[in-house]
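If you are new to this repository, start here. Below is one unmodified record pulled from the training split, so you can see the exact layout before writing a loader.
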Amino acid sequence: MDSGRRRGLNSVLSSLSLLCVVLDLQLDGVLGATPVEIEHHLEMGRKLLAAGQLAEALSHYHSAVEGDSKNYLTYYKRAAVFLAMGKSKSALPDLTQAIQLKPDFLAARLQRGNILLKQGSTQEAREDFQAVLKRSPDHEEAHDQLHKADELELLQEEAHETYHHGDYTTTVQALERVIELSPWDPESRELRAECFIRLGEPRKAIMDLTPATRLRADNRAGFLKLSQLHYSLGEHHDSLNHVRECLKLDQDDKECFAHYKQVKKLSKQLDSAEELISEQRYQEAIDKYESVMRTEPNVAFYINKAKERICFCLVKMKEAEEALDICSEAHQREPQNIHILRDRAEAYILMQEYEKAVEDYQEAREFDQENQEIREGLDRAQKLLKLSRKRDYYKILGVSRSANKQEIIKAYRKLAQQWHPDNFQSEADKKEAEKRFIEIASAKEVLTDPEMRQKFDSGEDPLDPENHQGGGGGGNREWPFGFNPFENGNFHFKFQYN
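And here is the target side for that same chain:
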């Protein structure tokens, strides 16, 4: 029985030995590479690099490094591809490996020193440049870069000192040269961004923080700061995108998640409000913008935006008095906002206060002389003002500009009955009544005809002979439909109020 067990054990051991041999042969086939194959990869990498096909070149250099991990040149050449691809962090370990394999490889030391200098690591960069100069004292580039490393270190110290003293303008000036020398240093960009924030220039801060987020592997703080800056400027979609980048790095980050919930809620309300406006559901849009002000009462942009759009909605709803109040409040908050001035001008037009409408449109034009909508609005308001000094059909009937046809006819019937010439005895009163009666009938004719009313609302009197080619002279309006029933002073008739 023991001999049987021994035979079984020997059989297993033999099988394992054979398996190891087979695996060893297979691994040699996979991982090993002949000098000819390595040279082929290097040659292909060189050609593809020269052709600008960086990803393909990198693949061949990977194979060359795997085939011969002791060749310092393969690491150096792969580092060159990484640098061409803008991946300096990936190039750094390859340059370090090349230097370890060949300590007197000056090209690798110089290249590593240049990367370290651009990353703001002055001490490490200085060591590489000094190592090059130790072996090659007359190396011109190494001398220049060593001077830059010394200059950078002094500027970094100056920038931090002036920042801690609260002199942000001087700090920005110093950091301009710092960033020129070390564009891959996130700390310098973050410091300058902080200065811009304190100087009240958030957009410049964004321009520094955006590249800084790509220079750190885990820059949640940078993404959060970017999100907060965009949020404060009213750019809620950009804010949402950046805070999501933070949560991609760590979905449990408490600060980013809390900010994400706030931005998402507000962004949804703003988008919904604008969609309601596009659908002409103005009262619902007003309600939504009131929700926006409750959601974010502390950021001026969102309060101003809400009031501006509520002003717009009220004008569209022809709620002139309420619109005027909100538009005036919005104008106080943003005196140069041409949209608020435009909407308040339209509210004044609804209230037939044409002079004030003209003033608002003129003020808006001063801020934007090229805006076609403002120019057209001013032209219309000026025409309406001119018309109002001649004849205003809304005032004649005593109705608002938003009155519907039923309200216009009701007002017409009441006034026609009041000013019918048969109600007056003296010749003078009768003539005055005839004049008023004609005006009332003219007003009804214009305001109950959609096309004529549209012309009048645009600043043109459709019954003014001056507005019609071939029209006869005379300053007085003829009776509508071509005859005046009062031409004969003795003419009497019974008026039908239909």
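Two things worth knowing about this chain: Residues 138 and 372 are 67 Å apart (CA to CA). The two ends are 127 Å apart (CA to CA).
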